[in-house]
Amino acid sequence: MTFKRVSPDEAKALIDREGYVYVDVRSVPEFEAGHPTGAYNVPLMHQGPAGMTPNPDFLDVMEKSFAKGARLVVGCKAGGRSQRAAAMLDSAGYTSVVDQKAGYEGASPAEPGWRPRGLPTSTQPATDHTYEGLRARKS
């Protein structure tokens, strides 16, 4: 594991000061309900009738959307999926991946996530930041 894990506040500072972009790896419905402002959505797992199932296109969509040297903060709901996604990206050759601990909602009351910390959120992503928009990109 060569990626760093950072708090939501540290992730926001990387975005603001160092040009990182936030990639939310939660499911599409979770992302649509609220996400960090400016985030991209590439689900690691899809939400369906049988529960959560792996997204077989995760790495393909990431590789079409972001260069291997892109500065990426990866986040999810509480930190588990984003840690798995960061490990996958690291193994695929991405060199500037940071995993945001505590995710969007938080791992526990003692470790609040992006939203409970009062960091900027939105329910209206730019079309090219949605999973459908990213999947439609040409490689």
Structure description:
The chain has 139 residues and is an alpha/beta fold. It has a single domain (4-135), classed as Rhodanese-like domain (Oxidized Rhodanese, domain 1, 3-Layer(aba) Sandwich). It is 30% helix and 26% strand. It is built from five helices and eleven strands, in the order βαβαββββαβαββββα. It has a five-stranded parallel sheet with strand order 1-8-7-2-4. Strands 3-11 form a two-stranded antiparallel sheet. A two-stranded antiparallel ribbon has the order 5-6. Strand 5 and strand 6 form a beta hairpin.
What is the topology?
Elements lengths: L3 E3 L1 H11 L2 E4 L3 H6 L1 E2 L3 E2 L3 E4 L2 E4 L3 H8 L5 E5 L4 H12 L4 E5 L5 E3 L2 E2 L8 E2 L8 H5 L4
Parallel strand pairs: 1-8, 2-4, 2-7, 7-8
Antiparallel strand pairs: 3-11, 5-6, 9-10
Task: State the end-to-end distance.
Answer: 27 Å
CATH class: Alpha Beta
CA-atom Rg in angstroms? 14 Å
What are the segments in which pLDDT stays under 50 over at least 5 consecutive residues? none
Question: How would the global form be characterised?
Answer: globular
Oligomer, anyone?
single chain
List its traits.
139 residues, alpha/beta, Oxidized Rhodanese, domain 1, 5-stranded parallel beta sheet, two-stranded antiparallel sheet, 5 helices, 11 strands
